[in-house]
Write a structure and sequence with these properties.
By secondary structure, this protein is of the alpha+beta class. The chain contains four helices and eight strands, in the order H-H-H-E-E-E-E-E-E-H-E-E. 20% of the residues are buried.
Length: 185
């Protein structure tokens, strides 16, 4: 959406530059002399590039999973049995939700490009799940995981529109967590 707005803005700047070419006089007062069309076009291009750079910097500024960024509390401690076999994965988990006796935790890397979801069924602790994904750069589905006998779990970024997923049967238990059907053997 922002890219469309940027394209529209740039197109207006170019049209304005072409319109300025046909006018005479205003630039004489503004710049104290005659400004040729080529100079106007170069100036408009420079302004457009600066605007593009500023907007793209804003576009690529994915802010991560908001709930994970809050200070840790005692309730955020992962149960002892849940662990990742890869030490370079995010490990600073936060409890996001508890639904039907399953606790859902999430963590993300400091640069917010890798995120993990952990699901811990309180009544069946041996059926815990942990899944991670990297390369996160914007609003999207991050990772989906399941375990036999437990609901399928999907982690999404903050701000991701989940309406399509919900219409497919996913149930939102938190802004970043959706729960699907129970995985059967």
């Amino acid at each position: 959406m922002q890219l469309l707005a940027l394209t529209t803005l740039m197109s207006r700047a170019v049209r304005r530059c072409v319109q300025v070419r046909s006018r005479v006089g205003w630039h004489d007062k503004l710049f104290g002399g005659t400004l040729r069309y080529r100079e106007m076009k170069s100036a408009a291009a420079a302004v457009a590039l600066l605007l593009l750079a500023g907007l793209l910097a804003g576009c690529s500024g994915y802010s991560g999973i908001t709930t994970v960024q809050r200070p840790a509390e005692a309730k955020d401690a992962l149960p002892a049995g849940i662990r990742s076999e890869k030490p370079d994965l995010p490990s600073d988990f936060r409890l996001l939700a508890e639904d039907n006796r399953v606790k859902y935790f999430a963590a993300e890397s400091p640069e917010r490009t890798t995120a993990c979801i952990a699901a811990y069924p309180v009544d069946k602790p041996d059926q815990w799940m942990l899944a991670c994904s990297d390369g996160i750069t914007g609003e999207r589905e991050i990772v989906t995981t399941s375990h036999m006998g437990q609901p399928t779990v999907k982690l999404v970024t903050t701000g991701f529109d989940t309406k399509a997923l919900e219409s497919e049967g996913w149930r939102k238990v938190h802004a970043n967590v959706l729960v699907g059907a129970v995985a059967n053997p």
